[in-house]
Write a structure and sequence with these properties.
CATH class of the largest domain: Mainly Alpha
Oligomer: single chain
Shape: elongated
Order of helices and strands: EEEEHHHHHHH
CATH topology of the largest domain: TerB-like
Number of helices: 7
Number of domains: 2
Number of strands: 4
Largest sheet: 4 strands, antiparallel
Radius of gyration: 27 Å
Bound molecules: zinc ion
């Protein structure tokens, strides 16, 4: 009796080093292919169609599409960083226009905060011009923040909320509209209101130290 059939045979194509998104590290990989074979007496003899092709991390054994080999964590990091600063600016602009009036003190607080974070000096005119467009943006602030939030650590989220608070406090007290916006920003970032209050009290503390002329901690 002749026994024949088909079965998938996995073969290694090549090995090397890649950035494993699972390990968040450079690791060894194996690039593998699973091909269907025609078998005779359970021995694969004739190669048939390709069933699967994947890249396997040799540390965590996760399997990825072969496109993972062209993933560049450094360019990804730079992209997220640029998006982060763009969003910080958007948050501050939205906070400035939240009370329907643009105060010179708010413009100045945006200019200073953005320069401290990025070393990019915006002019007051640029800030006022961008504020005009903020209402006509196609995607809402919440959408942008929710999309960005998973890429941000706690520190980055605190920087974002702190920037919003600085602008909210620039004119006088934090008004109702500004409070509501702060709540929406915090929610989109996945921050609790206790966390936001913590950032606020740290900010107030550093402000009062500045006014008293005492050296700032940290
Ligand atoms: Zn891995």
């Amino acid at each position: 009796m002749i026994i024949f059939g088909v079965r998938g045979v996995t073969s290694g194509r090549k090995n090397g080093e890649f950035f494993c998104p699972g390990c968040n590290e450079h690791r060894r990989f194996a690039h593998k292919r699973v091909r269907r074979f025609f078998t005779l007496y359970f021995i694969p003899v004739i190669p048939m169609d390709l069933l699967a092709e994947y890249v396997e991390c040799q540390s965590c054994r996760r399997k990825y599409n072969k496109d993972v080999l062209s993933f560049d964590p450094e360019s990804q990091r730079k992209k997220i960083e640029a998006e982060f600063y763009r969003t910080v600016k958007r948050v501050m602009l939205e906070m400035m226009v939240a009370d329907l009036q643009i105060h010179a003190a708010e413009v100045e607080s945006i200019r200073q905060t953005f320069a401290q974070l990025t070393t990019i000096e915006l002019s007051s005119e640029e800030i006022r011009a961008e504020a005009e467009h903020v209402r006509n943006e196609s995607s809402s602030l919440e959408e942008i923040l929710s999309e960005l939030a998973p890429c941000l650590n706690e520190r980055a989220k605190e920087i974002m909320i702190r920037a919003a608070l600085i602008v909210a406090m620039a004119d006088r007290a934090i008004e109702e509209r500004e409070q509501a916006l702060l709540g929406r920003i915090g929610q989109a970032l996945g921050m609790s209101s206790a966390h936001i209050r913590g950032v606020l009290s740290a900010l107030l503390h550093s402000e009062s130290e500045k006014e008293n002329g005492e050296p700032r901690a940290g």
